[in-house]
Design brief:
The structure holds two protein chains of two kinds. By secondary structure, chain A is mostly helical. Chain A has 22 helices and two strands. Chain A has a domain at about 275-485. Chain A starts with a helix and ends in an 11-residue tail after the last helix. By secondary structure, chain B is mostly helical. Chain B has a single domain (about 1-90), classed as Helix Hairpins (Orthogonal Bundle), CATH 1.10.287. Classes of the chains: A mainly alpha, B mainly alpha.
Chain lengths: ~500, ~100
């Protein structure tokens, strides 16, 4: 329980402390605090592993009067993944975002914003109250928008404002749904909403909340803000934005559709969600194929990879929830969230290294860089294996589970999209890999410290390990799984 | 009766805000439209939450929290708009109609 409090409050406290610290003390304090939070996340995961879900009623008040915080296996896994990504990004950013390299504003601004983002993520993962989730996701959006705007160029500011318009519209749609739910039931606790007396406004409330969260998750056709925002931010910020931020709003969708209002999941609604996901996989992949800059390829790949997550809805939700394949689909989508987070963070960090080395991320300029920076080239290739879904990576486990569930459910079109998306990923990632491993180097590269190069390599290796040791996260995800996904395949 | 008036006023504010959001390219107006929608929702929330004679404190607490959230979001948005206007001379997103 104390670990739960630490992961929730320590990022927030450190974010405020960093504002007061002199420049020299900033990075050591952030790194020390990050290490503590990673340890606390590990302790929380262990506590959930051994003792089941950890629950905390804030101030000793039980819902509906108070607000409940609960770490189930899914929340613990996401907190652990986020802690690893955040820790790695902090390690890379201490090399990349030094004040003499990127200017005083970015060198200062990144650290409190990163910690605020971390606090908001953990708050969203742990909250069991719809309004608390609203505040968490809003704090998340504000920190994310500020990270996009960090470089201060006109392009970055326009991308940040476009992102903000989508995020604010999403928040207001979600808030409208929350208002309707409270008006009908007088409670916003997810556990109490699950046992509510159904009201005729429920469908509208769920629809509004879902539409708002889709805009924040950047599901097709709400994805237009994502590539300029993620490609315009400094690379460590892009890693956070792409790997972690969409997972928070996706988790709220899971909480709504599987825990708060599973009875409303009609076949047609679930089909629409997954169909949008399928279009995102194909469309994001096709657009990634025609980009000329590495960061844009990686950003469009995020649009595609997020699409897979939505296959969970027809395979594990609604009537499908009682079927034997539901557990496989549910766990597969969560594996996709975890492995994409690790691999995508690794990829953006390698892009940051390339930009630091040659001052550009155009594919033509990247030619032959794997010779001068072999560790980074290897890290990129490992992360690519996960995104393509090749064995033995975490991405393979995710797609294998989703595909077997799709066949078992007789919904083979999703399996086709999974296969097609894998081929597209291989195609759009082949272009940067071919450039990196080309024979002759195009540009002379500045030297990059080995410790910096090792950071994305560790993340990429973790995303492979997730597949090799898939039994441990698999069992962790089962702890406290919502009732609609109880049966095993 | 008065609750219905509050709820209808809230709905009208949301409608105005949505119209402005779609019709006005000037970013400052868009931010004001977000605030209109937010205020409308809070008004509706207060009306929908006040059931029976007793006052329900939870919507009030949530509305106050929501106002604080909206305030910080607006502050950040205005800051970004000012920075963008200084850089480009226009307070509108690049590929949309340029605001006067």
């Amino acid at each position: 329980m104390s670990a739960l409090v630490v992961v929730l409050t320590l990022p927030l406290v450190t974010a405020l402390t960093v504002l007061l610290l002199p420049a020299r003390a900033r990075v050591p304090v952030v790194l020390a605090s990050s290490a503590l939070i990673v340890l606390a996340a590990g302790a929380l995961a262990l506590a959930v592993w051994h003792g089941g879900p950890v629950t905390l009623a804030v101030g000793g008040w039980a819902p509906p009067l108070g607000i409940a915080l609960r770490a189930d296996g899914l929340a613990a896994a996401l907190i652990m993944m986020s802690a690893l990504v955040m820790g790695a990004v902090a390690l890379a950013a201490q090399f990349e975002l030094t004040p003499d390299r990127v200017g005083a504003r970015m060198g200062f601004g990144f650290w409190p914003l990163m910690l605020l983002l971390w606090a908001a993520l953990n708050a969203v993962y742990l909250s069991r109250d719809l309004f608390n989730l609203y505040v968490g996701v809003e704090l998340l959006s504000l920190a994310a928008v500020a990270l996009v705007a960090l470089s201060g160029s006109a392009q970055a500011l326009a991308a940040a404002l476009r992102y903000m318009i989508f995020a604010l519209a999403g928040s207001l749609l979600y808030l409208a749904g929350v208002v309707l739910a409270y008006g009908a039931h007088g409670t916003l606790d997810i556990g109490l909403l699950a046992v509510r007396v159904p009201a005729h406004t429920d469908a509208l409330a769920l629809g509004l909340m879902t539409a708002g969260l889709l805009a924040k998750t950047a599901l097709f056709p709400f994805h237009v803000w994502l590539p300029p925002a993620h490609a315009g931010a400094p690379a460590p910020a892009s890693a956070l934005l792409s790997a972690l931020v969409p997972k928070a709003s996706f988790l709220i969708l899971i909480r709504l559709w599987f825990e708060a209002m599973p009875d409303l999941a009609s076949g047609a609604a679930l089909l629409v969600l997954a169909a949008l996901g399928a279009i995102a996989v194909i469309w994001g992949g096709v657009l990634a194929l025609v980009q000329k800059r590495l960061k844009l390829i990686v950003a469009y790949s995020t649009v595609a990879q997020l699409g897979y997550l939505f296959f969970i809805f027809p395979l594990a939700g609604g009537d499908g929830s009682a079927q034997p394949w539901a557990a496989g689909a549910w766990t597969g989508a969560m594996f996709q969230a975890l492995s994409h987070g690790l691999a995508k963070a690794a990829m953006f960090l390698t892009a940051g290294i390339y930009i630091a080395a040659i001052g550009s991320d155009r594919l033509g300029d990247l030619r032959g860089l794997a010779r001068t920076l072999p560790m980074t080239g290897f890290a990129f290739a490992l992360a690519a294996i996960t995104l393509m879904g090749l064995p033995p990576s975490g991405g393979f486990t995710a797609k294998y589970l989703l595909m077997t569930s799709a066949f078992a459910a007789g919904q083979w079109p999703w399996a086709l999209v999974l296969a097609g998306g894998g081929v597209l990923a291989a195609a759009y990632l082949y272009r940067p890999i071919a450039a990196l491993f080309a024979q002759r180097a195009q540009t002379a590269a500045r030297p990059i410290p080995r410790a910096w190069q090792a950071v994305p390599l560790v993340l990429a290796a973790l995303s492979i390990l997730l597949g090799l040791l898939s039994a441990i996260p698999f069992d962790l995800l089962q702890i406290g799984r919502p009732a609609p996904a109880q049966e095993g395949l | 009766m008065s609750l219905t008036v509050f709820a209808l006023t809230g709905a009208a504010l949301v409608g105005l805000g949505v119209y402005g959001l779609l019709a006005l390219p000037h970013l400052l107006r868009r931010i004001m439209c977000f605030n209109l929608i937010g205020s409308g929702l809070f008004l509706f929330f207060g009306a929908a939450g006040a059931r029976g004679a007793a006052v329900d404190a939870i919507p009030q607490a949530l509305i106050i929290t929501g106002i604080v959230v909206a305030l910080s979001a607006s502050a950040l948005a205005v800051g970004l708009v000012v920075a963008l206007a200084r850089r480009t001379g226009h307070a509108a997103l690049p590929d949309e109609d340029r605001a006067p």
